[in-house]
Amino acid sequence: MNKLIPFSLVVLICLLGCQTENSTADFGINVSYSDSVESDSKDGRLLLLLSNNDEKEPRFQINDGLKTQIIFGMNVENMKAGQQITFDDTVFGFPYASLSEVPPGDYFVQALLHVYETFNLATGQTVMLPMDNGEGQQWKSSPGNLYSKPFKLSITENGISNLNVVMDQIIPPIEEAKDTEWIKHIKIKSEKLSKFWGRDMYLGAHVLLPKGFNEHPEAKYPLMIFHGHFPDDFGGFRTTPPDPDLQPEYSDRFGLEGYNIIQQQEAYDFYKRWNEPDFPRFLIIEIQHPTPYYDDSYAVNSASQGPYGDAITYELIPEIEKQFRGMGEGWSRFLYGGSTGGWEALAVQVKYPEEYNGCFAACPDPIDFRAYCLTNIYEDENAYYYDSEHKKLEVPSHRDYLGNVQSTLREGNHLELVLGDKSRSGQQWDIWEATYSPQGTDGYPIRIWDKMTGEIDHKVAEYWKENYDLRHILERDWEKLGDKLRGKIHIYCGDMDNYYLNNAVYLMEDFLENTTDPYYDGEVLYGDRAEHCWNGDPDQPNAISRLRYNSMYVPKIMKRIMASAPKNADLTSWRYR
How far is C-alpha 120 from the chain's CA centre? Predict the structure, then answer.
């Protein structure tokens, strides 16, 4: 039987072991950029990426799931061509916090500079943020970003030192989508946003025209607004059958072979449906409203992003209706979308109750912050860990329909912290913060929780509650909102949503169904074992129903129009066959 070793001796042995290990390993990777691609000095987020497979460039293999590769990040200001910036073992990374934790082995290495620009805000602060350059705020593919081609390196037990990585590539500009017979594109300068950001800012949209648009100049049309992530063009509409030479691709998400072919077939089927004699003649638009924080603004006014809600509702929408003969009245406008778009559809309907006549919100982002995914920001002390006296259990952030967990809240937030501090990662948790939080004295959003530890700031949570917790706002203001929203709220969610978004929908449903003065007169439906993003189709799986947004709510919209259109409303000019 072994004798017990005194605890103090165990601690000493551990400390000596750690010191020995750190003293024998050296980590230093020098990153610079060549004046052959850029001669001006740059501000931004400098990223170092490592991958042990060559399926794709390392920059395309970073996420918070089980297949992620490795990334480290730091801010740089006034970085000059040829200047070397060193990544050592003190630079924070994901999923390894330090380079010293990366296991020995062969890796492909790559560096990328996500370029920041300076904004002089109307609020008086100066901030540095990445301007969208037509890609929808994607750090890995944003035009103007500098990067290096991947090459192979070996990390040994002694670490790695004096390795030089030179960024000699620049991501080229993106060509804007061109008009076609069916799809038109519009871009306007927003006076409201330009004033806030201290520079010219633009809003755009892709407009799908109805059949007979040119042949019926007398017709004015209802408007369907499809909210969601940044669209490079109008999606899901194709005038020709699937490409016969298209090689089938497997979808990991849906477990389907040839999903790319299915997508093309569904887009072509929609085109045929759009042309059928009994299909109502609408305008459908997808909006481009990226911000320096994300691929879209969440379509509401916010302290750190500016008046996007007002700019979209009072500048962009009227201009579209003017150019393409929209009716221009609240009863003729409808909102729909999924995930981010689902939250936007509901939020815009709530914030502008008389400017729109119905929302169809699928799998919306958290609409009750008591269920901010799996966190109650009002009562929980820490977002990353469950409350427990004797064990430390992390809060999950992503599951499949059987409940298998792929990532945790802490992991996702730590990845964001590597990609950018001050809510500048361009990722999900940071855009919620950039949208919902008050603005700090430095001009950036105030954190809802400490990004490293997860400790929640309940003062910030109260600000979120009063301004963006949609269930709370409805409950607080139902006396004045109820009549304006009656019959307009429709929510759909899978009961195994990957991001636990169904929990907030349950809480919203509890309020709506128990409110009788007036009764909300809408619907809340759930998909059995359905993942993100179930949108209300009881007969088709997510893989198919998600491709049918532009037609699946039309019968409900037509019913709403017939029931709610004001006296003398135009119900005929757009009903031609």
Answer: 25
